[in-house]
Amino acid sequence: MSDRRVYDIVLLGAYGYTASVCAEYIANNLPTTLKWAIAGRSRGKLDVLVAKLKSIHGNRQDPGSFDAPNGQDNANYLESLTAVEVVELNDDALGELAARTRLIINGIGPYHLHSSPVVKACTKAGTHYIGFSLETPWVEEMIKEYHKEAETNGAIIIPTIALSPSDMLTFLVTSDIRAQPKSEGCAEVLSTAKLELQGMSGGSLSTVLSLIETYGTSWISPGDPFNLSFNSPPTSNYKLPLVSRLFGYRSIPVLGKVTTSFLAICNESVTHRSASLLPEIYGYSFHTHEYLPISSGVSAVFVHVFTKLAIYLLAFPPLRWFLRSIIPTPGTGPDLAEANTEKQTFEAIGTPVSREGRQVKGKFVYEGSLYYCSAMMGVEAARVLLENDDAHVPAKQLGGGILTPATLGVSFVERLRDHGVVLGVSGLVQ
What we know:
By secondary structure, the chain is an alpha/beta fold. The protein has helices at residues 17-29, 43-56, 74-80, 91-99, 111-114, 116-125, 136-153, 164-178, 202-215, 242-247, 264-277, 279-282, 297-313, 317-326, 370-387, 394-398, 409-418, and strands at 7-12, 36-40, 84-86, 101-106, 128-131, 156-158, 186-196, 250-252, 256-259, 287-293, 343-352, 360-367, 401-402, 422-427. Helix 1 (17-29) packs parallel to helix 2 (43-56).
């Protein structure tokens, strides 16, 4: 990368809820030698964040405060180097910012409304990018627009780091299946996702409403879980059981009773893209389905019907207008101390293509604030791209493009484990 890159990381939209948690995480956990900056459109809000960071870790350098390169006078250099980068969301300003850093962590949402220019700037500058989007219709647009150019320019763009739990768990399950003798890859991964939340940020709720205004509801229901993938759906054993399609209910060995999950389409889309990017691990006939664990068949039907009804009701503008009037303001969110009681649990069962292979089960568990976990995953993903050996990071072997959390490989898994995530797999007796 160019010598103009005076920063390791720029945290863009730093005073947004998730990004501000990222800033605190950096202040508490990353080396004090890190060359970083916080950036956004409001100087006042950025200054408030700087003051908060000083109160958290007063003995570390401010964002952007580091020694001048090439023997320049440090005082003069720091005069021209702004610890706080005030930037407008236009091509010129973002292009200049992207050219001055190795990686951007982007917290400006809704991403489909505000962050396409950020992806464009990183793509053209060959700058790595980490984002927290769950907005798979927007990610599909970014793939069509910028994947090839990002690949050519060596820019690793991972817009969906918040969907790491499902993606990384499936990566581990399929990797274990691939390591079996004479393995032909993984045929199917079935999984469940249970989120125990104290609340959602105003930005997350606003994004759901804005997504439906922009893209309608068809991306959720029925949805296309292969919309981000290079591959077509496998022709064999792909359709869901009829009872599951009609009523949501399904009973899966090991996983138990399950039903329709609102977020499944996002996780499935990203995981299928991972499979198409890494066929040497997943194989060429892979597919996945995600569900919500449930206690009974009656509850499964109720949740299924309620979920489908809620999706269709959100298509009506008067309801979205009403919800906007009562949801929290974007930029606000649950108190992190109170959110320590939150928990996310993902479980999966993988079946190999070969009948001689053994099934593999896996689990991802994190206890604590889900937004803190997202922030941690975003920063640790950035560290994988900046610090880890290229040979151990599939994303670096791919060279660039619109990629997924799974392309960060085992290096990312190890970092997650080091920061409180229980993530592992085990074989099942056949």
